Amino acid sequence: MWWSQGKARIRNELGARVKLDPASVPLRRELLEWLETQHASARKMVLVANVDQRVAAGIAGRVKLFDEIIAGTIVRSFVARKTPRVGRTVRRTGI
Questions:
Q1: 41-50 own/partner pairs: CB under 8 Å, 24+ apart
Q2: Neighbour count for residue 63 (Cβ, 10 Å)
Q3: Domain boundaries in the chain?
């Protein structure tokens, strides 16, 4: 009964079971244009997402602008605890 083992386990199990088509995810045109501008400026592009790693990888593969992906449990734990690790991640990636 994985559904009774907490939110993180539910997200991981759903991420493993549900196949999301990245083409079905709506993207804001303004955001995509801004990302393209930043990428053209030779900025390091990091997708940080509070979703399953597989979902983030699918979106990144669709957009083809990101140099690195940080997603899944690690992002959720950063946000939930609001620890200094978020700052270290930001400094590490140069955002």
A1: 44/68, 44/93, 44/94, 46/70, 46/93, 46/95, 47/71, 48/75, 48/89, 49/75, 50/75, 50/76, 50/79
A2: 18
A3: 2-93
pTM of the predicted protein model: 0.65
Judge contact between 62 and 21, C-beta under 8 A.
no
**Helices then strands (H, E): number in the chain?**
5, 2
Question: Which pLDDT does position 65 carry in this prediction?
Answer: 94
Nearest one of 36, 49, 37 to 75, comparing CA atoms:
49
The amino acid at 55: V
Pair 70, 46: CB distance under 8 Å = yes
